[in-house]
Structure formats: C-alpha cells, structure tokens
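Incident log, entry 3
Record: FabA-like domain-containing protein (119 residues)
Problem: checksum mismatch between cached and fresh output.
Input:
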Amino acid sequence: MLTNETYSNVAGTARHAVSGSTGFALGHYPDDPIFPGVMSLNLMQHLAEGLASHLTGHERRAKGIKRVSYLSPVRPGDVLHIACDAPRVGKDSARAVIKSRLHVGERLVAKSDFLFDLS
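Fresh output:
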C-alpha cells in the first residue's frame, strides 16, 4: 500500500506507485485508465490515521471527512506523494482535523480533511 511512511511531531509523508496491472486499471475506464478517487482517499486516510496514532500514542481511526477534492486524474505509472499535517494534535487534544494532500510530482491531485475524536 504505502511506502516510505515517516512521521514527525506535526506531519506524515508516504509514497505509493500506481500500477497499471491492478484491477482498477483493467476495469475503471478501460480505454483511459484512471486511479479511482476512493482509492486516493483511502491512501490519504491511512496516512492521516497513522499520524494521529503516532501523535497520541494510541491507535486512531478517522471519525469523518470534513471535505475531499479531486483536482486532477491519477494514471497508471504515476508515483503519488502523500502528505498530512496536524499542527495542534497532542495527547491532551479532544478533537483534531488532519489535512491530507496527494501530489504527482508538483501537481496537486487530491486533498482532504479528516476528523478525529481523540478523547
């Protein structure tokens, strides 16, 4: 799924190489394959949950999505760079919004804000 996952005290980063041999490429717009938006959202959520877990010291799952935007298509062969940040999340926080961004090179392709209940 994700590779090179790293976390700091306010951010997380990871990568994902989009293969042309996975099921989506064979059936999702067969003549013009596009990486499904739900799969992009799943990658961003996975990294956001990893960051929330890292920051609080407990396993955390997103409780909701505040917003999601798909800005540009992702195609087989693209390497996705996922980044998220949570500048005010800590062990004493009750709620948090973790912002995630998905890039292919310099091109922003998707973004989302995930909601967490940390109590």
